[in-house]
Amino acid sequence: MMTKTENVLEVKNLTVSLPGDGDRANAVENISFTVAPGEIVCVVGESGSGKSVTASAVMGLLPAALKPTDGETLLEGENTLTAGKTRLRDLRGTRMAMIFQEPMTALNPVARVGEQIAEMLEIHTSMSASERRKRAIEIMELVHLPEPKKMVDAYPHQLSGGQRQRIMIAIALVLDPALLIADEPTTALDVTTQAQILTLVKEMQERRGTGVLFITHDFGVVAEIADRVVVMQDGRIVEQGPREDVLRNPQEPYTQMLMASVPSMTPPERKPVEGDFAIDVDGLVKRYGHNGLFGRGRVVLAASDVTMHVRKGETLGIVGESGSGKSTVARCIARLIDPTAGSISLHGTEIATLPESKLRPHRRKVQIVFQDPYRSLNPRRTIGLSMIEAPVNFGTTKADAIVRARQLMQLVGLPADALDRFPHQFSGGQRQRICIARALMVDPEVLIADEAVSALDVSVQAQVLELLDDIRQRYNLAMLFITHDLRVAAQICDRLIVMQKGIVVEQGPTRQVYSNPSHSYTRQLLDAAPGTEVEFGSGRAS
Amino acid sequence: MVFYLLKRLLATIPVMLVVAVFIFLLLRLTPGDPAAMIAGDYASDAQIAEIREKLGLDEPMLVQFGIWLGNIFQGDLGESFFFKKQVSELIVARIEPTLSLSLVTIILTVSIAVPMGVISAYKQGSWLDRLTMGFSVLGFSIPVFVIGFGLIYVFSLKLAWFPVQGYDRISEGLWGWLRHLILPALALSVIFVAFIARMTRTSVLEVLGEDYIRTARAKGQTETKVLVRHALRNAAVPIVTVIGFAFAILIGGVVVTESVFNIPGLGLLTVDAVLNRDFPTIQAVVLLFSLVYVLINLVIDLSYTVLDPRIRY
Question: Which long-range contacts (CB under 8 A, 24 or more apart) does B175-179 make?
């Protein structure tokens, strides 16, 4: 019988080496920490810090290129690094289990969710098929899935993101493991769903005394659920300790910098922007789908009667969860999609119904920066070619365009010789700067940032936010800032629109919306944001 | 589902109609008088006139097409000029060897190619993988008749394990039937094994990088089950698609193999019909092949809904 004080997991001096041509020798270097029964330990760090590698090393799921070269990972005293293949398979699922970031892709899309839970029992127990099914339904009930008797036969695509993650948790916990490793389990979820999943993880850990190793990049989440915090940077542990100590009184400069980069939920005082309207949207409707030939079609109202105005030099934020219609509105304004009804005018020019042939000058005026800087640049063209493409299309000479590109590179903080290089030679943050510079090449009047900082690490995010704000001021741009992140919205937006299911439920100055929300959905969103009791920084690079 | 099936079946009608029009025009638009062509080089004018009247060639084109189509629907595919028999009888007599050869080939192909592709993907970069891929290139490059004659030389003439050519009906015994089919099926399958193994490898390789494969491993599942239950099932849609196409191409491609191995199937029938300008037979065979193509496509499409629950029509 194991005593209560014994640790579920002890990682001792773990070193995992990277293949020879990497930018550093080890993915993780000489790290040590423990997880006690019933304890939630958060490993927090930016991308490339080695946090996921640590988790995979414990589970024995490291990619073939990564080799543990030193140290041990003791699961209830047993080293999983040296365990044989068969023993490791036995331990997975029974003593340690893992949940992942993407609940859609982490479940087999062609197998019923019940089967996927039952598979765990099939591997590790001698239960009959009917017992397995019964047990699957029980555990689904335990993780609060609605109508488990029906849902047990559903396929993953028929469930919502939150429900899928509950299925993943059910799979992980069905055999009552001593250790649960959660690798960014709420990163892909909406904020209200995230709050529910965090509550569930806590509930399960309290009820069953499971030790939880929780990997995240989100300090809000850390503040919400951690008992102890391990901060990692470049494969090393920078700082670790109880939550209160690390969050309220960080000792190391790196931790302090990270904490300061996390945007606070309290919006700063902002002077209302005066001046002409740049964008006027009136009664915008976008309907997808149509009634099928036999009345079997599906109609989705992605945006319904949306009315809003953005002044020159103003940042209007559109916040909402996935499916709220925030991106639909932005795409209508850019006329990437055609609105079903309503009016959109740019500086008084009606563009909602302009035919494609007359849209060209309008396209120049509205530029978009997208979420994923890895996929929005053509990997086979140099940055310079990507930059000058649009202005050359609009009649600028190549030489003039290149001069302009050089200036803009400087403005976004990149060297001029960046123009001769290819996208893969830059980091995510640098690429997003390039995307911003590219958008500015044609002197737009409106800049749409569609989740433009969501894929970035928090320290990089802070820098890009600062850049966007600077550019808005410098060029007197009307900026439409679309985000699901309430912390980011609090810091950058002058005014806010809150959308739910295609409808604008609330709008007003940012400070007013945060301090005195009038709609129940806005309150729900604000309450769901994790870690609100800890005050973070300004969200700007210091 | 039933609704979709009905819709798809209805949609095959216009496709087959277009095919029928082309097949009909095949004879009518060939330079020269069809009646003279049918009658042959030594026919008298009276004979030609008789044939013209018999086939209704004096009527307007549209009426002729109506008569022809009506006859087909009644199972009357016309009379073969060369064999002097009802074409429908000819086809019934010749269909068994062709179907047998195609089925045996496809079973052989799938049971070699799919495991080969899966193992190759799993052991990516190993000598086994390289061997498979090498074979793939080779299989693509060698023509069927070369492989066929090579197999006959080694296994029939030198080793005398299998008959050189010919066909035994299945009703005369399973072993004799199979013995005659193994070499031609093997010859035919090489190119399809090369193709399907490659496709399987690519498809499985893609799936092996997916998150749910990692999930399955995190559950403690054995590698074999990870491969079969999680990887292969998810990779199945493109694999089944190429198997379907392979089957369709096979049926059309038996012409060469049946000639090499002298199997009295539809392939040989086609060759004989073409060489003797036996238009009713050519028309019937082309019509039949087209129908098989359309049906195979239908089956492929329907199989998607079974393989992937996300695909619903």
Answer: B177/B100, B178/B104
Residues of chain A contacting B, Cβ within 8 Å: 59, 61, 88-94, 97-98, 100, 102, 105-111, 119-120, 123-124, 155, 157, 168, 171, 294
pLDDT, average across residues A388-414: 88
Chain A residues close to B4, C-beta within 8 Å: none
pTM here is 0.80
Q: What residue of A is the nearest CA neighbor of B307? A: A110
Continuous H helices in A143-240: 148-151, 161-173, 191-208, 219-225
Torsion angle, alpha carbons of A434, A52, A163, A286, to 10 = 0
CB contact under 8 A, B230 and A168: no
Q: What is the pLDDT of residues A80-127, one digit of tens each?
A: 998 888 999 999 989 999 998 887 789 999 999 999 999 999 999 999
Tell me how close the Cα of B306 comes to any Cα of chain A, in angstroms. 10
The residue whose two tokens read 């009959």 is: A128
Q: What are the structural domains, with CATH classification, of chain B?
A: 2-73 (no CATH), 91-307 (1.10.3720.10)
**How does DSSP assign B250-305, residue by residue?**
HHHHHHHHHHHHT--SHHHHHHHHHHTT-HHHHHHHHHHHHHHHHHHHHHHHHHHH
Q: Is B216 on the interface with A (CB under 8 A)?
A: yes
CA distance A65 to chain B (A): 14
Confidence band of B34 (pLDDT split at 50, 70, 90) = low
Contact with chain A for residue B123, Cβ under 8 A: no
Of B3, B220, B310, the CB nearest to A123: B220
Specify the DSSP element, H or E, that contains A216.
strand A211-216
pLDDT value of residue B305: 83
Helix, coil or strand: residue B1: coil
Query: Residue B144: in which H helix or E strand, if any?
Result: helix B144-151
**Greater model confidence, B152 or A436:** A436
Decide if the complex's ipTM is over 0.95: no
User: Is B211's Cβ below 8 Å from some Cβ in A?
Assistant: yes
Per-residue pLDDT reduced to its tens digit, A228-250: 999 999 889 999 999 989 988 89
Show residues of chain A in contact with B308, CB under 8 Å: 109-110
Reported as a pLDDT band with limits 50, 70 and 90, residue B22 is: confident
By CB atoms closer than 10 A (0-12, 13-18, 19+), residue B141 is exposed
Q: A453-499 pLDDT, tens per residue?
A: 887 888 888 888 888 888 898 889 999 999 988 889 998 999 999 99
pLDDT of residue A227 exceeding 90, the answer is yes
Burial (Cβ within 10 Å: 0-12, 13-18, ≥19) of residue A165? buried
At A259, which helix (H) or strand (E)?
helix A253-261
Q: Do B218 and A92 touch (CB under 8 A)?
A: yes
Between strands A366-369 and A341-346, the pairing is unpaired
